[in-house]
Amino acid sequence: MSEIPEEVVIPAGALASSAVRVDTWLWATRQLKSRSQATAAVRAGHVRVNGEPVKAAYKVRVGDEVRLRIEGFDRILGVNLLLNKRVSYPQARIAYDDRTPERPRVHIPVAMREKGSGRPTKKERRELDRLRGYDSHEHY
């Protein structure tokens, strides 16, 4: 768990209590745009707390690990501060510790031809089709 810098002002939405609903926390920390989206994500099974699937009313505590699946990738967040009201991004940023590993980079080969080289020959066209995954013998 990372330490909160002393010069950072604790947001007005921060709670003195020991727990807050997971859907409210996700919305307040600006992970999802609306509270209803956060609730829907939890109901769909896209949210886990400490590795366990949870319901929307599950109470998160400081030190918990929240996994949120967005667009097929998991965001792994450590809870540093409990928020029940939506705050500005800089204030929300101190409420969680982003532990998400970097997404894998996918390299897709791109066929490049020299400018001014004219139209591709039949052989070059077949090579381009093979590179793109087309069978040049199929009829379209």
From TrEMBL:
Belongs to the HSP15 family. It comes from the Bacteria. Signal peptide: none annotated. GO terms for biological process: cellular response to heat. GO terms for molecular function: DNA binding; ribosomal large subunit binding; single-stranded RNA binding. It comes from Schaalia dentiphila ATCC 17982. The keyword RNA-binding applies. This is S4 domain protein. The lineage of its organism: Bacteria, Bacillati, Actinomycetota, Actinomycetes, Actinomycetales. Residues 20-77 form the RNA-binding S4 domain. Pfam families: S4. Residues 124-140 have a biased composition (Basic and acidic residues). Residues 112-140 are annotated as: Disordered. Keywords: DNA-binding, RNA-binding.
